[in-house]
Amino acid sequence: MFTRFFPILTKLKALKTHGRMLWHAFRHADTPKWIKGFMLAVVAYLFSPIDMIPDFLVLFGITDDLVVISAAMWFLGKVVPERVKNSLPMPENVQTTQQPVQQNQSKSIAAPVKKSPLKPLGLLLLAAVLVAALASHPWVHAQFEAIGAFF
C-alpha cells in the first residue's frame, strides 16, 4: 500500500533482494573468480578515498558512488551464473507459487555452460574506472609534476 505513494520503498526492497543474491553469489563455489574480484573491487572503490569525484563535494561525491554501485550491481546481476541465482535459499516468510519441476530420473542431460560475452566489457569498465579515479587524484598530479620538473 505504501509503495504506491512511495516508489522508493519498492526500489529499496529490490536493492535488499539484489544485495542478498550478490552476497550469496560471492560465497558460492560456482561463481567465477573474476566476478568475485569485480565485487571486491567495487567495495574497495566505495571505501577508497580515491574517487572520480571527491567525497568532500557532498552531493556530487555521493552521487558518483551511487552511480558506480548501481551500475556494478546491474552488471553483476547479468553475469552471475543462473545455477548460482537458482540456488539462493528463500526466506521462511516468502511463499512461492511455482510447483517443483519433476526431473527425468533415467537420464539427466546438462545444458552446456555459455561463456558470458560481458566479461571483457566488465574488465574494461573496471580498468577505466580505476584509471579515471587514479588520474583525478591530487597525489597522482603531484607525482607527474615532480617527474616533469625532473626533465
Q: What does it look like?
A:
This protein has 151 residues and is mostly helical. Helices cover 65% and strands 0% of the residues. The protein is built from seven helices and no strands. It has helices at residues 2-5, 7-27, 33-47, 58-79, 82-86, 118-135, 138-150. α3 packs antiparallel against α4. It is flat.
Cα shape: flat
Any low-confidence stretches, pLDDT <50, length ≥5?
none
- H/E element sequence: HHHHHHH
Approximately what portion of the residues adopt beta-strand conformation?
A: under 5%
Distance between the termini: 67 Å
Query: What's the gyration radius in Å?
Result: 21 Å
Specify the number of helices: 7
Q: What class, by secondary structure content?
A: mainly alpha
Mean pLDDT: 75
Roughly what percent helix? Answer: 55-70%
The overall strand count is: 0
Characterize the largest beta sheet: strand count, sense, and whether it forms a barrel: none
Task: Give the topology, please.
Elements: H1 2-5, H2 7-27, H3 33-47, H4 58-79, H5 82-86, H6 118-135, H7 138-150
List keywords for this structure.
65% helix; 151 residues; single chain; 7 helices; mainly alpha; flat
Report a brief summary of the structure.
With 151 residues, the protein is mainly alpha-helical. It is 65% helix and 0% strand. The chain has helices at residues 2-5, 7-27, 33-47, 58-79, 82-86, 118-135, 138-150.
